């Protein structure tokens, strides 16, 4: 089963200014699509529209050929969105944070899975430290642990490299490519230069 | 390019991440949200104690400011207790969705493949458990300070327990609407206070009736009806308001 997210004639207006107009876009299995553009060109807005958070736009969205309105449940079950804010509760430990995310998607999950996911992002030994005491990069890593913990076909990542060290960036890039090779699909905004890959496609805004 | 549909089953073995059908798990998600919010609130005890301290302070100041005369106090006690509890509950509302909004977990909540209505109801339930219920349990003790006549203490606690549940539900609509605003506190009060009036009237009325020796069941029944109505309607309004706020 391949996946396909399509947008037709997307247009979004913010404060009497068109961020983009007449944008046609198609994202399929096995692709990494990088949304490019200067600050304020609407990259985050586009990702929010594509992930179904913003409804203040013109145009149409299709998920696997069906209009988004009818397919929303199936779409959400296959979406993993990481926004600007990592969505990590500072009062909870990384383990507790991940447990909530796992439960949100309806799985009880096991502690071993969460420990494994944390180890994979280099946070072994920080499992029970309140996330508020972790650095910004470590908090981002907790959020990134969801990529392995709750496998989803479509990844929508808004600036996932923020605050991540060089080593982590290389690992994450490898993970994106591996996901696309496995038939998944990645939509990403970043100011970081991604290594050229045949799977990588660029869309420029602004 | 082939159109992607369920027919291309042959591809499925190749995919490491197959598309998944949405499969239940609502109870897991609701339970986890309840536990998460409870844990968070219990780790920030100051926030839980704040409304209770406010309630206690207001009530202790009244006999000092007005008069220690028990007969006078007994007349105004039901109203005072109810107004102070209502304001205390109102004070704590602003933080209901605020921290989730700030750290990005609210957008994750909205993107969960679970009905937002159920998840937001879980959040409101935690708010009531840690604000409304403690206020209701504390009120009889403060009633002693106001020389509340014997026989009305149980009704006071019961009316507050029922009433604050409606207050949490109604207030959460306002909290959800104003969560995107930097200083939504005043607006929140203006939005929800008018909706609080019926609860206040019947809540204070129940205690008054108990003091006068009239039947309290009518008042409590109306409080129950208000709660039932808010339980039915408010979750949908909260979910819709959250979507509007996230859109902003």
TrEMBL record, chain A:
Q: Which SUPFAM superfamilies match?
A: P-loop containing nucleoside triphosphate hydrolases
Q: Would I find Translocase among this entry's keywords?
A: yes
Keywords for this protein: ATP-binding, Cytochrome c-type biogenesis, Membrane, Nucleotide-binding, Translocase, Transport
Nucleotide-binding recorded as keyword: yes
Which ranges carry the ABC transporter domain? 5-205
Which terms does the record give in the GO molecular function aspect? ATP binding; ATP hydrolysis activity; transmembrane transporter activity
Question: Gene3D superfamilies, from UniProt?
Answer: P-loop containing nucleotide triphosphate hydrolases
GO BP term, example: cytochrome complex assembly
Designated name of the protein: Cytochrome C biogenesis protein CcmA
Species name: Halomonas campaniensis
From TrEMBL, chain B:
Topology of the protein relative to the lipid bilayer: Multi-pass membrane protein
Pfam families attached to this UniProt entry:
CcmB
Q: Where in the cell is it found?
A: Cell inner membrane
Q: Which GO terms describe its cellular component?
A: plasma membrane
Keywords, A to Z, come to:
Cell inner membrane, Cell membrane, Cytochrome c-type biogenesis, Membrane, Transmembrane, Transmembrane helix, Transport
- Transmembrane spans: 48-66, 72-93, 128-148, 154-179, 186-212, 218-242
Residues annotated as signal peptide: none
Q: Which GO terms describe its molecular function?
A: heme transmembrane transporter activity
Q: What does this protein do?
A: Required for the export of heme to the periplasm for the biogenesis of c-type cytochromes.
Q: Which PANTHER family does the record match to this protein?
A: CYTOCHROME C BIOGENESIS B-RELATED, HEME EXPORTER PROTEIN B
Family the UniProt entry places it in: Belongs to the CcmB/CycW/HelB family.
This chain's protein is named Heme exporter protein B
């Amino acid at each position: 089963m391949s996946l396909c997210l399509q947008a037709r004639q997307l247009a979004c207006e913010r404060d009497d200014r068109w961020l983009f107009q007449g944008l046609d876009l198609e994202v399929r299995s096995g692709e990494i699509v990088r949304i490019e553009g200067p600050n304020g060109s609407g990259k985050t807005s586009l990702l929010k529209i594509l992930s179904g958070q913003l409804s203040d736009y013109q145009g149409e969205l299709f998920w696997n050929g069906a209009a988004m309105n009818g397919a929303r449940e199936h779409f959400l079950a296959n979406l993993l969105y990481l926004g600007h804010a990592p969505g990590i509760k500072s009062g909870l430990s990384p383990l507790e944070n991940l447990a909530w995310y796992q439960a949100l998607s309806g799985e009880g999950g096991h502690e071993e899975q969460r420990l494994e996911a944390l180890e994979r992002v280099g946070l072994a030994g920080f499992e029970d430290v309140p996330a508020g005491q972790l650095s910004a990069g470590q908090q981002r890593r907790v959020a990134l642990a969801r990529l392995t913990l709750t496998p989803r076909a479509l990844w929508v990542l808004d600036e996932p490299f923020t605050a991540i060290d060089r080593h982590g960036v290389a690992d994450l890039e490898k993970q994106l490519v591996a996901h696309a090779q496995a038939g998944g699909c990645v939509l990403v905004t970043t100011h970081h230069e991604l290594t050229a890959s045949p799977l990588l496609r660029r869309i420029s805004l602004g | 390019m082939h159109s992607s549909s369920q027919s291309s089953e042959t591809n499925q073995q190749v995919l490491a991440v197959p598309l998944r059908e949405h499969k239940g798990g609502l109870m897991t998600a609701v339970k986890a949200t309840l536990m998460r919010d409870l844990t968070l609130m219990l780790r920030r005890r100051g926030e839980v104690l704040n409304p209770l301290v406010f309630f206690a302070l207001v009530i202790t100041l009244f006999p000092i400011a007005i008069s220690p005369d028990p007969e006078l106090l007994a007349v105004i006690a039901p109203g005072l207790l109810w107004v102070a509890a209502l304001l205390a509950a109102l004070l704590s509302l602003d933080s209901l969705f605020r921290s989730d909004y700030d750290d990005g977990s609210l957008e994750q909540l909205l993107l969960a493949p679970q009905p937002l209505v159920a998840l937001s109801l879980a959040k409101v339930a935690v708010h009531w458990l840690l604000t409304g219920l403690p206020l209701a349990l504390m009120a009889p003790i403060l009633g002693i300070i106001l020389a509340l006549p014997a026989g009305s203490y149980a009704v006071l606690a019961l009316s507050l327990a029922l009433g604050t549940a409606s207050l949490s539900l109604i207030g959460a609509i306002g909290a959800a609407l104003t969560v995107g605003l930097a200083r939504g506190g005043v607006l929140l009060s203006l939005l929800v206070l008018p909706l609080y009036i019926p609860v206040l009237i019947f809540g204070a009325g129940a205690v008054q009736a108990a003091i006068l020796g009239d039947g309290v069941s009518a008042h409590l029944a109306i409080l129950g009806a208000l709660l039932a109505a808010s339980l039915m309607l408010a979750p949908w309004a909260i979910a819709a308001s959250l979507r509007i706020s996230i859109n902003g």
